[in-house]
């Protein structure tokens, strides 16, 4: 199917500067796009790429319209990155290959499970007793949805996702660990996307909850009884320990860790590789990491860190002495 700029504007909005009948052959980034491609410029720091790009059309803000339309067409919109995101979805919908069976023959679905009539269950998936899959949701290959767990509408669970494994609960008795049965489930809202090989544990007594619009990257661990608020996003390899409560519209950078039983307010943003060791009750950007250095310097700094408590007490004592001397 040929897509013209006029067609895009009809579907997604925006304004054409140039030839509305120009036909798009593909999507590409500025640095590698050819005359047949449409690309986008979303930030001023990439403006230098615009002059050398061979893209046939560039999606830009009004401020870059003049520069982008020299020798090519431009598609002008207030938010080029959002426009490009919507364009990728339109492109895939119009060009995706013919789908196979809605439920793959190798999938195992318990008779006591409920799967919406338009949900898609991929190869080697397992949907256990009492589990529910909502309308328009897609389970890619090898997804496991354990007993009693639910997935809302229009969700995507990528390959290898495990929803509803037992939470990590054990009681220590006379040097041995005794299992605590995990009696809760996992409840996933609508429009959630979960990356490959991510695991979400069932709750011990109450459910683990993933609210609407949450986006989880690959290889994330969500512990039992965690509650993640609506439209929060987490990058790859994040670990969230049990009973943590994370607000809405938060972001957690790759490799970050949130310790158990902590709370993060709405609109909290955690930098990559940070370790959250206390609750955060105010919105904002938070970072907690030790900068990379040579091993020798790191060992010196680490040794100094161990002395901080004693140094603090010595400073307090000196300040007290100075204050006393002033008063005499």
Question: Strand arrangement, largest sheet?
Answer: 8-11-14-17-22-25-28-31-34
Please identify which CATH superfamily of the largest domain we are dealing with. Answer: Hexapeptide repeat proteins
Kindly identify the CATH topology of the largest domain.
UDP N-Acetylglucosamine Acyltransferase, domain 1
In CATH's first tier, which class of the largest domain applies? Mainly Beta
CATH A-level architecture of the largest domain = 3 Solenoid
Total beta-strand segments: 35
Helix content: 10-25%
Structural class: alpha/beta
The N- and C-terminal alpha carbons lie at a distance of: 90 Å
Shape: flat
Main sheet characteristics: 9 strands, parallel
Number of DSSP helical runs: 6
Spans of at least 5 consecutive residues whose pLDDT stays below 50 are none
Mean pLDDT over all positions: 95
Number of domains: 3
Question: Measured on Cα atoms, how large is the radius of gyration?
Answer: 26 Å
């Amino acid at each position: 199917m040929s897509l013209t700029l006029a067609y895009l504007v009809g579907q997604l909005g925006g304004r054409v500067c140039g030839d509305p009948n120009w036909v798009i052959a593909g999507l590409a980034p500025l640095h590698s796009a050819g005359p047949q491609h449409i690309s986008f410029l979303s930030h001023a720091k990439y403006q230098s790429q615009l002059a050398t790009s061979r893209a046939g059309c560039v999606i830009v803000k009004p401020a870059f319209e003049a520069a982008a339309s020299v020798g090519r067409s431009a598609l002008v919109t207030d938010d080029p990155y959002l426009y490009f995101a919507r364009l990728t979805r339109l492109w895939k919908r119009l060009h995706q290959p013919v789908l196979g069976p809605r439920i793959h023959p190798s999938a195992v679905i318990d008779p006591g499970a409920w799967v919406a009539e338009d949900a898609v269950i991929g190869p080697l998936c397992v949907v256990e007793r009492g589990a529910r899959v909502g309308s328009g949701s897609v389970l890619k290959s090898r997804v496991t949805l354990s007993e009693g767990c639910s997935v809302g509408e229009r969700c995507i669970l990528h390959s290898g996702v495990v929803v509803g494994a037992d939470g990590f609960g054990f009681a220590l008795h006379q040097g041995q660990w005794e299992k605590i049965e995990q009696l809760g489930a996992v409840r996933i809202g609508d429009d959630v996307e979960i990356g490959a090989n991510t695991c979400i544990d069932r709750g011990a007594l109450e459910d683990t909850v993933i609210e609407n619009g949450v986006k989880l990257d690959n290889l994330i661990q969500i512990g039992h009884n965690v509650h993640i608020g609506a439209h929060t996003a987490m990058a790859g390899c994040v670990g969230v320990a049990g009973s943590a409560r994370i607000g809405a519209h938060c972001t957690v950078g790759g490799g970050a860790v949130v310790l158990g039983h902590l709370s993060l307010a709405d609109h909290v943003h955690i930098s990559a590789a940070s370790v959250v060791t206390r609750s955060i009750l105010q919105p904002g950007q938070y970072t907690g990491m030790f900068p990379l250095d040579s091993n020798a310097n790191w060992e010196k700094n680490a040794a100094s860190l161990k002395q901080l408590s004693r140094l603090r007490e010595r400073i307090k004592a000196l300040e007290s002495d100075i204050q006393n001397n002033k008063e005499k």
